[in-house]
Amino acid sequence: MTALLEIAGLRGGYGRTEVLRGVDLTVAAGEVVALLGSNGAGKSTLNNTVCGIVPAWSGRVSFDGRDLSGAHYRDVVRAGLIQVPEGRRVFPDLDVRENLELGSFARGRARRAANLERVLAIFPRLAERLAQKAGTMSGGEQQMLAIGRGLMAEPRLLILDEPSLGLSPLLVEELFALILRLHGEGLSVLLVEQNVAQSLEIADRAYVLENGAVRFEGRPAELLASDALRRAYLGL
Questions:
Q1: Which domains does the chain have, with CATH numbers?
Q2: pLDDT in tens, 72-116
């Protein structure tokens, strides 16, 4: 399969502190790829560096054959590489409609109305709360809103950063069912999660990040077949 996202030798961090130590990772068109690792492994730093929020020290980020290394985050969004950040980060004083419409600020503006209709069909609960302030919603509803906002930008690849964090088991099940649904519609997904078991159930391939470097990669069955890997890195 052709690589949609290709990360090669990516190094980066904050100040003098190196967090990413030569990360190599690819996501092919139509894939769900899981990026697994404990807190502090560098997962969110990788996301933010790929998306142009944190500058890379060295290495290359290519998206659909286009070099995005050092690109401004708005150019990354315009290319169709969209991140739903950890912690949802909705705008609490804006209502649901306003939050969603902001998702199409840099990409998808011409089809905003059609995309809003699609998002509300995916998340009927949001349709019932269009005038509600985002800050008054439950954690699960805010996660729906954050994902919906990402979908408003017509992503070609959606990065989901810890989407199950803080959700009840039932909502986690619904979330992973949604990811499978979006994947079935052709969306490519980079799923960054600590929920190892459910991530491996839906992923085509997976990477395990430790101390800013990829320690293992392969198909879920290959990762689960290694007792040492399961015990040391996957918590299974």
A1: 3-80+156-234 (3.40.50.300), 89-154 (no CATH)
A2: 999 999 999 999 987 778 989 999 999 999 999 888 888 899 999
